[in-house]
Amino acid sequence: MLTYSRPTRHVSEFADAVRDGLTKPGQKELPSKYLYDEVGSALFETICVLPEYGLTRADARLLETHARDIVDQLSYPIHVAELGSGTGKKTRWILEALSRRQRTFYYPIEISPSALAACEKELGQIDLVSVVGYEKPYLEGLRAVAKGRDSQEHLLVLFLGSTVGNFDREAGEDFLHEVRETLQPGDALLLGTDLEKDEQTQILAYDDPAGVTAAFNKNLLARINRELGANFDLSQFQHEARWNEMERRIEMHLRSLRKQCVSIPAALMKVSFAEGETIWTESSHKYRAAEVLAMAKRTGYRCEGQWIDGEWPFAQNLLICE
Ligand code: AVI
User: Fold this and answer.
1) Mean pLDDT computed over every residue of the chain
2) Is the distance from CB of 109 to CB of 85 less than 8 angstroms?
3) For atom 3 of ligand 1, which residue has the closest CA?
4) 82-114 tens-digit pLDDT
5) How many Å lie between the centroid of ligand 1 and the Cα of residue 284?
């Protein structure tokens, strides 16, 4: 007897996104959030320690060096919510600085259950810090945290690692505005932004010689094979990192090495690729320090501090809600 099992919501959302992206007229696309399944998240952790990818080290160095200055600018009592905490390693510096002043609640908001578990384990051991994880999308999680707080308590929201750069510039600004709408005057947003640097350094950061970023990018096709029953031949696609000068962003693409047709049963589709055609999988926008200040002002914050790393141009921006 044939049985039909209805796809879970998670699988059918992924299938819809794949179908929409691969049937777009002109440039084919896949949303970058799907890069982060268990395999993709592990590959991203490896990217963060590559010598060519200075971003994560710069982010962490700034937090380690300036955590005291940062917490000195905040209004108390205050608790911390982090958007996309990952394993939360860099956050330790801020939580330790805060725990010298008060008992602190830390709310990591993260859709990867394994990253959330690692984060709870890593940071739950700091004295006077209580960790309460939210396995939710960013804004949904932040709204839940904001709703649960007492009226005299402030919130510090962490949005580190230049994740804002993975939004289109306009969408990034809209997102900062939505975060602001969820917060109260005097609350704070600590925003990490990767700054523009020379083209060769930027390209190498997204096309490392060990091929880890290539594996991270190609895993998206492997994930479509695993979860949607597709037959992508990974050897027939090549990772590519491009600097788009006009938009000031790195774009990751997967280039088809030959004319080919792929079937994706769970998305009820077959898709053809011309030789040389690409799928655009991610954008990573780079900023100018002054641009971040202007963006903060337009979205309802004043910038109370901006710290720039001396080795790898990256800025930590402390934005206070007006
Ligand atoms: C998560 N995000 C900020 C990373 C970035 O640099 O845009 C993702 C990444 N993609 C390739 N390498 C790293």
Assistant:
1) 96
2) yes
3) 163
4) 999 888 889 999 999 999 999 999 999 998 888
5) 7
Q: CA–CA separation, 64 vs 52, rounded Å?
A: 21
Q: Which atom of ligand 1 is nearest to the CA of 84?
A: 1
Distance separating alpha carbons of residues 266 and 224, to the nearest angstrom = 9
N-terminal to C-terminal alpha carbon distance within the chain: 64
Q: Which atom of ligand 1 is nearest to the CA of 55?
A: 6
pLDDT tens digits along 19-30: 999 999 999 999
Q: Could you tell me the pTM of the whole model?
A: 0.95
Q: Which pLDDT score is estimated for 5?
A: 56
Looking at the chain, the whole-number percentage of residues with pLDDT higher than 70 is 98
Q: 3-state SS of 181-201?
A: HHCCCCCEEEEEEEECCCHHH
- Closest C-alpha among 37, 2, 58 to residue 201: 58
d(CA 263, CA 22): 12
Which residues lie closer than 8 Å to 13 by C-beta, 6 or more apart?
none
